[in-house]
Amino acid sequence: MSLLVIEDIHKSFGGNKVLRGVSFSVEKGEILGIVGPNGSGKTTLINILSGVIKPDGGVVVFKGKDITGWRAYRRAKLGIGRTYQITRLFTNLTAFENVMIPLHYGAGEKTSVRRIEEILETVGLSHKIHSYASDLSLAQRKRLELARALALRPELLLLDEVFAGLNPVAVQEIVSLIGKLREELGITVVIVEHVLKALSQLADRVLVLAEGKVIFSGKYEDMVRDKEVIKAYLGERYGETA
Amino acid sequence: MAKLNWLVLGTILLLYALPPLLSGYWERVLSSVFMLTSLTYAQNVLLGYTGYPAFGAIAFFGLGGYTTAVLMIKVGIPFGISLILGGMVSGLVALLIAPPLMRLKSHYFAITTLALQIALAELSANIEITGGAYGINLPIYKGFLGTTIFYYLFLSVLLLSFLTNLFIERSKFGYALKAIREDEVAAESSGVNTVLFKSVSFGIMALITGLVGGVYAYWITYIDPESMFDLLLSVKMFVALLFGGVGTVAGPFIGAFSLELVSELVWSEFIEFHGVVLGAIIVLVILLLPGGILKSRG
After folding, report:
1. What residues in A contact B190, CB-CB < 8 Å?
2. Residue B213 domain-assigned?
3. Burial grade of B229 (CB within 10 A; 0-12, 13-18, 19 or more)
4. Of A73, A90, A92, which is closest to B191 when you measure between CB atoms?
5. What is the percentage of chain B residues whose pLDDT exceeds 90?
């Protein structure tokens, strides 16, 4: 059974039809990349999966449960963690507190210093445990947001442009971190991304969204050769300069 | 910061021993200081920890005061029970209206609570049970301790509101509120039931504010819509909070005490300019002390 199944998801904002019948499923332990041009509905899709917004139509099934109408906090408790395109940390709280809140309210675990240190260690931030989130660099904030999602003990991690704005070294570090999370914790990852190089290293499968529809689903190597994808997203000259 | 909180607690406890040394005048001055401090603490739960500014929080002061008065006069329930019921009614009403009301944020939320305050003032001026524009006369209290009882009542509500703030500052419950203040969407995706927690926060604010209103009603023995839904009280409460430090445990105490004592000592000399001085203080606080005397991280 697939960990996550979504069927025929529709969503409009006013007259703007952002998603027009999106369906796919994600297997346990898989890393699925979602790409597409700006405005193709990627972030909307992540928001619908995490419960931040409700779809107009369609079904979201996670671990065999229909969670379409569930609010975000219940999905978090059930094991869906996420990060945001522009980080949304508890900026006036410390790294410790940022992790403690989901650990207590999401995972329902005892919030011992050791456990929180352990989670921060996973993302390489244990030395910043008492720093305020607002004092961290962008790369560190992205790591802290990842730590906050991990504190939920998620089975599914939704990453919305986690590499945006990072330098190549930081991108590589997070690529190996995500790989490690899958290897060691068996976490399933859905990752929306523009940094294709990072995706090529991580994703088992890539989904291409264009104008609110899935136009491609398959291996990364096949995607870059797909005529429709080239037309809608990559452009005819893709690969010439890369 | 923690040391300062214990100092405030010590001061509150010491104030219990003070009445034998106080003149009637000082007893009244301090009672009104305690009143403003409690209101400021109530608002701190909501604005300081949860990030929602209820500019019309005095709606619940009036609701608590009127409920207490109506229960005493029209139903004949003793003051003590009426007071507690007044606070509870106030808290429950807040809890019920919070889920739709708190879909609004920042100034939209602030203005809507103000609308609630004005609506309740109009309502109390136009229905019979509240005595309409004439208001309600309450009997003068002549029992145990005489009027000093109000000093102790206000002080006890202050102690309660202080302890509530201390609890929120240090507990997991408080972290749910702080998460909402910092980023409501992120709080929700961290597993915090934001609708529940912000409603409870609103309810706590209204409960304390309602209790203060109930004590006030019996203290001044005559209530009317103007005195129970006083806009200036809302303004003073916010100035005290901004002045002392939003989202800190000691801030409301420091802010409200200094504001109310200054108001009592200096402004009584300039009755005509009361509003001008208050306005000037607001401007100065915002310009010079944007985080208040005690600046929190929030």
Report:
1. 73, 76, 101-102, 105-106, 148, 151-152
2. yes
3. buried
4. A73
5. 70
Q: What is the pLDDT of residues A183-223, one digit of tens each?
A: 988 999 999 988 888 888 899 999 999 989 999 999 988 88
| ipTM confidence | 0.91
Dihedral of CA atoms B281, B283, B284, B287 in degrees, nearest 10, equals: 160
pLDDT at residue A203, rounded to an integer: 92
Nearest CA in chain A to B176: A101
Chosen domain end from A153, A169, A190? A153
- The amino acid occupying position B218 is Y
Q: Which domain holds residue A191?
A: 1-79+155-242
Predicted confidence (pLDDT) at residue A242 exceeds the cutoff of 60 = no
The last residue of one of the domains, among A131, A153, A175, is: A153
Taking CB atoms and an 8 Å cutoff, what residues of chain A touch B291?
Answer: none
| Shortest distance, CA A72 to any CA of chain B (angstroms) | 5
**Helix, strand, coil percent values for chain A (each to nearest 5):** 40, 25, 35
Residue A38: band (very low, low, confident or very high) from pLDDT cuts 50, 70, 90? confident
Q: Is A81 on the interface with B (CB under 8 A)?
A: yes
Domain with residue A182: its CATH number is: 3.40.50.300
DSSP string, B214-251: HHHHHHHSEE-HHHHT-HHHHHHHHHHHHHH-TT-SSH
Its pTM surpasses 0.90: yes
Looking at residue A234, its pLDDT comes to: 79
- A226 Cα to chain B: minimum distance (Å): 36
Is B264 a member of any domain? no
Given a cut of 60, is residue B18 above it in pLDDT? Answer: yes
